[in-house]
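A favour between colleagues. Tell me how you read the following sequence-structure pair.

===
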Amino acid sequence: MKIKAPLLLIIYLLSFNSYAFVCKTTDGQNVSGGTQRINNVPLQNDIFEVPDRINIFAYVDDFMTCRNEAPSVYIDYLYLTDIIPGPALARNDIQSGAVVNGTAYTAPMTGGEVRIFRLASTATDSLNIQLYVKVDKKPAADIVVKKGDKLMTLKLHKYANRKPSTTPIDHAYFQWDFYSGTDIILGTGTCDINGNKDIIVDFETVNASGISTTGSESRFQKQVTLTYLCEDSSVNQNIKMVLSGDTSPFSDNALLVKTGSGIMQGLGVEIYKDGTRISPLSGSFLSNIANGIGHDTLTFSLVKKGNLADGDLIEGDFNSSATIIMVTP
């Protein structure tokens, strides 16, 4: 027994060292290296609205946490070694990258590793990394992202020191792949639509008899003027305005209408530009910017389902929403 006891102690220490640093995904999986697929990154249409044009679209801390399992024994170091944009973001007219502890690094990285944290006396620390896109001042082609598209890859290097030594040991390498959680069209450039404020269309009180099955024939129509103002007042170019929104159950040409937490099965909203209907399924119209400014007028019309069934129209407040995005033709 005296011969075996030291052997058992050595095995225990080696095992302890191998699992001293662990990262955990949002689905609860513990990983100590290798490639992790991070799904459902909630990309939003409004990521291009900040003045400095560095637009954060994901906080890594929301998807991954890392922990030193033995801070009294080891000091763990985590470094970012590379940033690789996904296909949709790998374009010459935009930049992408990561902000690490307040400093932005453009993809692909140059100049060596960047330290994320040093875990010496605490078990865990924030993964202070944000993924970003930086756009040009002038509108460019839209960015089309499908659910499941890869947005960005981060490569990381971890090692440890066994106190009090400064010799690097226990090296591990991670690759974190971030994938979009939604289908979305992203505008580019820094031209504001209506000052980045919501466009409110109030139909006030309506009755079913005045709503047609064709929006252009409906009694309930509202005209709204859109204004465009670019950060760069020298912008003179043609633009394309793209509509993106959920469609009604009865027509792909009408926006979905909700009442409370439910869907209004028999009511929709159609949008027209100069008498032409614009589909919520990436419908668009052409316009232009002159000396950094422009405008257009749209008509919003209520439309109802033909052959209404009981419950298709519900009395009470209703709402609908969509996004209008500026891109180049």
